[in-house]
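Explain this one:

_____
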Amino acid sequence: MKKYQCTICGYIYDEEKGYPDQGIAPGTKWEDVPDDFVCPECGVGKDMFELVQ
């Protein structure tokens, strides 16, 4: 499973954990996260996240 980081505030979306508070189940791959997903910390869109290497 991969992790994606918000380039604005540093929040990490972890595919293994998902984000149940926004209805994203654990194990949800980044490409399957809805396009209208926003960072729960700073509110920017999905396009502002980068893969953590």
